Amino acid sequence: MNAFPSLSRRRFAAGAALGTAALALPRLYAQPKLEKNKVSIAVGGKAGFYYLPLTIAEQLGYFKAEGLDVEISDFAGGSRALQAVVGGSADVCAGAFEHTVNLQSKNQIFRAFVLMGRAPQIAFGVSSKTMTGFKSLADLKGKKIGVSAPGSSTNMMANLLLSRSGLSASDVSFIGVGTSAGALTAMRSGQIDAICNIDPVMTMLEQKGDVKIISDTRTLKGTLDVFGGMMPAACLYASQEFVEKNPNTCQAMANAIVHGLKWLQTAGPADIIKTVPESYLLGDRGLYLAAFNKVRESISLDGIMPAEGPLTALKALESFDSKIKADKIDLSKTYTNEFAKRAKDRFKA
Fold first, then answer.
1. Is residue 88 part of a domain?
2. CA 117: distance to chain centroid?
3. Tens digit of pLDDT for each residue in 43-76?
4. Where is the signal peptide (predicted)?
């Protein structure tokens, strides 16, 4: 007779243990299985501050922490990286948000899923050597303008500025100079008369007296002056098909980037120098850090696309590109905040 209470106690203990295990199950499955562990990311000009959050996530192991084996291929400019993704040789592009608008105008739906930059970080400068009598952008007619690569965001901003001065792309010659040492050489040797590029290149040219800056979006104020609103910049984007088929993988990438953005909020100069590859400094640590301080506020805080950002980008593109028709673009298909919001909550960014 005493066996029954004992058996009941055993059953109760076993049931309680099962209940505890059941409660623990959600924790065990908190990180869903990735559809793709190996992901290839194409980027144009990885050494620039424009893509610093990507570099931080890579260097500090945040992609690996999410279970990702990421291969990053660096191209001369964002347009080349875009070609790699559209052509299928890369899964995801780290590039300018406005490319998603351009692609939709060609009936290709690509969606940004985590934002790295809330300002373009692009500056336009004219040569102190070949443009000594410069008075206005109209003086650039017939001149050579260096951009990271033809069709990239630096080219787009140059087109925007030229159009406001009554010039078109056909009035100048655009030359791809990259975003690092090659850009410095092209300007200092007189190969180009003006340059539209990102930091640290522009700060290095500016502080050495090689260029006169005439338009600047490396700060939030400068971005407002040029675009009339907040202009989203670097982001991770992929085809709609990739995002739909690989939501857990996209979430993992968004987590890694937002983790990097959170780290950047409190990182000091010494932390940056220790983390980025030595080659990114272009031989001058002091100027590299000066450039970082200049663009710091333009880095996204939490990876989320601001509500007004996509419309700012669309208006900018439409102002100089006749192929972009605002009434034909569905901006809701160019981005999603779904993944960044989850990452923000997780990392308290």
1. yes
2. 6
3. 999 999 999 999 999 999 999 999 999 999 999 8
4. none
Per DSSP, the residues of 4-69 read: HHHHHHHHHHHHHHHHHHHHHHHHHTSSPPPS-SEEEEEEE-TTSGGGHHHHHHHHTTHHHHTT-E
> In angstroms, rounded to a whole number, what is the distance separating the alpha carbons of residues 196 and 160?
11
What confidence tens digit (pLDDT) does each residue in 79-119 have? 999 999 999 999 999 999 999 999 999 999 999 999 999 99
Same domain, 140 and 114: no
Query: Is residue 166 within 8 Å of 140, Cβ to Cβ?
Result: no
Q: Is the peptide bond before 247 cis (omega within 30 degrees of 0)?
A: no
Q: Distance between CA atoms of 258 and 50, rounded to whole angstroms?
A: 15
Q: What is the DSSP letter of 323?
A: T
- Of 178, 198, 227, the residue that ends a domain is 227
Please tell me whether residues 286 and 137 are part of one structural domain: no
**144, 305 Cβ separation under 8 angstroms:** no
Same-domain status, 101 and 238 = yes
Instruction: Please say which residue of 227, 243, 273 terminates a domain.
Output: 227
Whether residue 222 is found in the same domain as residue 259 = no
Q: How would residue 32 be classed by pLDDT, with cut points 50, 70 and 90?
A: confident
Whether 213 and 82 share a structural domain? no
Residue 96, domain extent: 38-120+232-290+299-347
In the block, which residue shows the tokens 């088929």?
245
Q: Are 232 and 97 in contact (CB under 8 A)?
A: yes
Place of tokens 């590859």: 277
Among candidates 112, 162, 154, which has minimal Cα distance to 319? 162
Give backbone dihedrals phi and psi of 281, rounded to 5 degrees, phi first.
Answer: -75, -10
**Residue 1 pLDDT exceeds 90:** no
Count of domains forming the chain: 2
* Residue 147 near residue 155 (C-beta atoms within 8 A): yes
Q: How many CA atoms lie within 13 A of 81 on its CB side?
A: 34
Which residues neighbour 61 within 8 Å (Cβ) at sequence distance 6 or greater?
none
Round to whole Å and give the CA distance between 328 and 314.
11
CA distance 43 to 53: 12
